[in-house]
Amino acid sequence: MSRVHPLLIILVLLVGGVVRASRAEAPAPRGKPIRALLVIGGCCHDYGKQKDILTRGISERAPVEWTVAYDPDTSTRHVNPVYESADWAKGFDVVVHDECSADVKDLEVIDRILKPHRAGLPSVLLHCGMHSYRSEGYPTAVTPWFAFTGLQTTGHGPQQPITVTYTNTNREHPITRGLADWTTVNEELYNNPTGKLLETARPLARGRQSYRDAHGKEVTEDCIVAWTNTYAGKARVFATTLGHNNETVGDPRYLDLVTRGLLWAVGR
């Protein structure tokens, strides 16, 4: 087991949610265990279960030792207590951001969250992590969080299956090589209102969803659902907007994608 960050010991009393998930015995990839911090909690999702689904599923696939900063507060305005310390990310090889904090807009807090990533700390961003920290200038400006994620997204469509296709130009990317296209259960397809990624980002997969709108008209949306970003010229970021429902988070195809994204982010 990796060392427990002192702040996270305190968080046991604050939120009752800092837990450790031991690395499952996995044959590959071998090497020194990856020390990962999962920041999770907030509005609109079953984070209490998803923290366990993610950590167990990824650790079955790669040598990852987890520290989980789970915040049970279900509002969009609450800041995960892990961020109270300026050294919140010290000792970790990668941070997985899976929080839903859209109305946390304090630039001082956002800067504290982004500081270790600006210094080069790798990251994985999942689902509502893209809809968080909507500071002044959102949604038209490149806000601090948008520069980190690499892709602007402002909302989502109905709960309908999403057909996931790995883009032809990235079939040989280390994250997607050998992965087959697939279709989710009912899921939320996050939009791409600006129509493109930042210049620092590269697409990996697209999602296509069809449904009938309130007037009975057939609507088809096609959006980027997985990509990479290089933040501040040095930090590797893997991001996917998939992962609203527990069944999707626990899908082996989803866990394969996220695990590969995490490994790529840390240079494995």
Structure commentary:
- With 268 residues, the protein is an alpha/beta fold.
- The chain has a single domain, classed as Rossmann fold (3-Layer(aba) Sandwich), CATH 3.40.50.
- It is built from six helices and ten strands; from the N terminus they run αββαββαβαβββββαα.
- The protein has helices spanning 6-15, 47-59, 107-118, 144-149, 246-249, 252-265, and strands at residues 18-21, 34-42, 64-71, 94-100, 123-126, 160-166, 182-187, 201-212, 218-231, 235-240.
- A ten-stranded mixed sheet has the order 1-3-2-4-5-10-9-8-6-7.
- Helix 2 (47-59) packs across helix 6 (252-265).
Short précis:
With 268 residues, this protein is α/β, with parallel strands linked by helices.
Comma- or semicolon-separated keywords:
10 strands, 6 helices, alpha/beta, Rossmann fold, 22% helix, 10-stranded mixed sheet, 268 residues
Topology:
Elements: H1 6-15, E1 18-21, E2 34-42, H2 47-59, E3 64-71, E4 94-100, H3 107-118, E5 123-126, H4 144-149, E6 160-166, E7 182-187, E8 201-212, E9 218-231, E10 235-240, H5 246-249, H6 252-265
Parallel strand pairs: 2-3, 2-4, 4-5, 5-10
Antiparallel strand pairs: 1-3, 6-7, 6-8, 8-9, 9-10
Helix pairs in contact: 2-6
